[in-house]
Design a protein that fits this description.
Strands 1, 2, 3, 4 and 5 form a 5-stranded antiparallel sheet that branches. This protein has one domain: Nuclear Transport Factor 2, Chain: A (Roll). Strand 2 and strand 3 form a beta hairpin. The longest helix has 8 residues. It starts with a helix and ends with a strand. It is an alpha+beta fold.
């Protein structure tokens, strides 16, 4: 997933570029809840999501697809060697300009 690679390499992009890349894949619904990119950056840096930044390794489970919705489990080893699991919720967009694209609706502990 592009979002994971971007978050893993966030520091390489400068100015939280990896988090900004991940935000571009947030669905319009997700953006309604998280707000503008600067608020999203602040959210990702909170303890709940901090393990996503600069993690060492990630493994993805099978994607479960139900119509226009999908979930995928992501287990990762964070920068400090700790283990954390998340569930990515996605939806296929129907409205332009994202029609047909799978975008992230949310990421929860899992």
């Amino acid at each position: 997933m592009i979002q994971l690679e971007a978050l893993q390499n966030n520091d390489l992009y400068g100015d939280d570029g990896g988090i900004r890349i991940a935000y571009t894949f947030a669905s319009p619904s997700n953006r309604t809840h998280t707000g503008p990119v600067e608020r999203f950056i602040h959210l990702i840096k909170q303890p709940l999501y901090r393990p996503l930044i600069g993690f060492q390794q990630a493994s993805l489970g099978p994607m479960l697809i139900l119509g226009a919705h999908a979930q995928v489990k992501v287990d990762l080893v964070d920068a400090d060697g700790g283990e954390q699991g998340y569930v990515w919720s996605l939806s296929r967009q129907v409205a332009a300009p994202y029609a047909g694209c799978w975008m992230t609706d949310g990421v929860m502990l899992g």
